[in-house]
């Protein structure tokens, strides 16, 4: 368990880290370097850039509505509307969920680079700290860019058009379609860490970065354990169907970066990262979905490494 927590902590740290890792990032469009007043930043593994320079380089015309805090961008039949602070963009009138919302940093508006590039038909290639973008004259709709969630309904992990699974592919898919998970009473914005196990199966760790969210979910689940199926079942079934998986393991974990040295916290829940900082890691629940036997179960993690079966069932 400790080895797993170290791995998940390192993945979580990569998600929560932001500006430092992107300081030397170089972005080019059709071989020409893009000049930014402020360096690109990385938020939860998503590269964010100033919108004006990248739009000009891609040949996108744009306007900024100060009252609505909204960017309207057009290029050859494709229109995008992005709103500051909202993960929902509109491409030719179709609502599309982005991995990250546009943000304001020191008065500059940053947008998710890959999303705005691919929405206008460009192709993005990442190699280390270099991002090369090949612009395209042909615009595309969101349906052309990514597979439709739940495209097949077999639910047994044997979809004929299954995508090739990998840690990155599953992670990208989860962020695109399931950046918010729901119980009957609440919604939770989450992060993910996906690990391929030695036997080839995949574990999805749902990361909650604050006490309030983890406390609310814990209370809901202890009162009605079947809520965990509501919380995770849709994406687990979708992953199995989309990527042809026979089983999926799911963990729900509090992964909270700490400021300074940890004080009065359980030693077994603390992970020291490579840069000397600390993270509080507490796994609340663990479960599995077997799509061959059509069986799933969830356990609660207790003090001392013990677990308690909360709920199990067939479908």
Tell me what portion of residues adopts beta-strand conformation. 35-45%
- Tell me the radius of gyration: 21 Å
Strand tally is 22
User: What's the quaternary structure here?
Assistant: single chain
SSE sequence, one letter per element: HEEEEHEEEEEEEHEEHHEEEEHHEEEEE
- Into which percent range does the helicity of residues fall? 10-25%
Termini, distance in Å? 29 Å
Q: Which class do the helix and strand fractions yield?
A: alpha+beta
Contiguous uncertain segments of 5+ residues: 17-23, 137-160
**Mean of residue pLDDT values:** 82
> Which overall shape is indicated by the principal axes computed on the Cα atoms?
globular
| Tally of individual helices | 7
What kind of sheet is the major sheet? 7 strands, mixed
Model description:
It is a single chain. The chain is an alpha+beta fold and 315 residues long. The protein contains 7 helices and 22 strands. It is globular and about 55 Å long. The model is unreliable at 17-23 and 137-160 (pLDDT under 50).
Please give a quick description of this structure.
This protein has 315 residues and is an alpha+beta fold. Helices cover 23% and strands 38% of the residues.
Please specify the SSE layout and strand pairing:
Elements: H1 2-16, E1 26-29, E2 32-33, E3 41-43, E4 46-50, H2 51-57, E5 61-65, E6 70-75, E7 78-83, E8 88-91, E9 94-97, E10 103-105, E11 108-112, H3 113-118, E12 123-127, E13 130-134, H4 142-145, H5 167-177, E14 180-182, E15 187-189, E16 191-196, E17 202-208, H6 211-223, H7 227-243, E18 247-258, E19 270-272, E20 278-290, E21 295-301, E22 307-314
Parallel strand pairs: 1-13, 17-18
Antiparallel strand pairs: 1-2, 3-4, 4-11, 5-6, 6-7, 7-8, 8-9, 10-11, 12-13, 14-15, 16-17, 18-20, 19-20, 20-21, 21-22
